Amino acid sequence: MFFAASKAFWLFAQPVSLVLLLLLAGLAFLILKKRRMAIASLSLAATAQFLVGFTSLGYVLIQPLEDRFEQPSELPTNVGAIVVLGGATMARPSSARGVAELNQAGDRLTTTLWLAQRYPDARVILSGGGGFLMGETESEAETMRRFFTSFGIADDRLMLEGNSMNTDENASFTRAMIDQAEDGARAVLLVTSAFHMPRSIGIFRKQGIAVMPWPTDYRSSGRQGFELDIANPNQNLETATVAVREWIGLLAYHLTGRTDDLFPAQ
Question: What is the pTM of this model?
Answer without folding.
Answer: 0.93
